[in-house]
Amino acid sequence: MESYKLVCSLLFFIPLLSSAASNDCTTSYCGQSINGVRFPFRLTDQQPKNCGFAGFDLRCAFPSMLLINIPGSGEFSIKSIDYRYQSIRIYDPLNCIPARLLTFNLSNSPFSAVYFQTLTLLSCPSNVTGSLAFKHIVCLSNSSFSTFATDSTTDLTSMIRGSGCRITGQLRVPVDQPYSYWYRSPLDDEDITLTWGKPDCMICERVGRSCGYANSNTQRTKCYSSRDGKIMGWLDFIKK
Fold first, then answer.
1. 210 - beta bridge partners?
2. How many alpha carbons fall within 13 Å on the CB side of residue 188?
3. Which of 3, 117, 147, 221 has a CB 3.0–4.6 Å from the CB of 140, allowing a cystine?
């Protein structure tokens, strides 16, 4: 009888514990990832919708990979999140960011790029080798042809006439600063940086406070005194 009472008690409290956890908007983690997930981001399997802003949903993939879906462009892995400067670094989990950029579109997402650098893509015979100005994109090449990318201002005459290459298109690469092909390519990194402007939680983050919705009926945000959601007194910023 006592065992029965104990089981009934546990069955009663488990839903309450689950409900309490579902309203927990403290920082969450994906496995051993160093990236803590907090507003405006949320982990869809750990935090309720009120813990994140529209377009900032993240998914935790085994073992510690954070994934974000860019509408129309698919899922990307997150390398880092900078809450103070409102930027994220993302990469292709299959390690071919040039292929993903062929159809990359930010128009339906809350993110943007600081700059875009346009590269020209060339398809060349497989025996053609690259140079300082022409980056070989291995993941877009095979035994029959090689794909190269170069700055759109590069003189392509010698590559086209002398090597049998042909232009196949252009690639717009999101970058955080302009690149020169004489020093390094924007494709040397296997990740790209994106930023967001709304919601604006910079002030909260820079003074060590958390950020969240002002109330359940608006998308305005407010600074809170700590990660546990206690409302601040002297720093009660309301932002559009």
1. 224
2. 11
3. 147
pLDDT tens track for 121-164? 999 999 887 777 888 999 999 999 999 998 877 788 878 887 88
Phi/psi at 87 (5° precision): -145, 155
| Residues of the chain falling short of pLDDT 70 | 1-24, 180-183, 226-240
Q: And the tokens for 124?
A: 């060349």
User: What are the tokens at 118?
Assistant: 């346009």
The per-residue pLDDT of the chain, averaged, comes to 81
Question: Closest Cα to residue 92, out of 115, 109, 67, 114?
Answer: 67
pTM higher than 0.85 for the full model? no
Strands 238-239 and 221-224: antiparallel
Strands, sheet with 111-112, edge to edge from the N-terminal-most edge strand: 42-43, 57-61, 65-70, 74-82, 87-91, 191-196, 111-112
Q: Do 213 and 222 contact (CB within 8 A), yes or no?
A: yes
End-to-end, the C-alpha distance of the chain in Å comes to 58
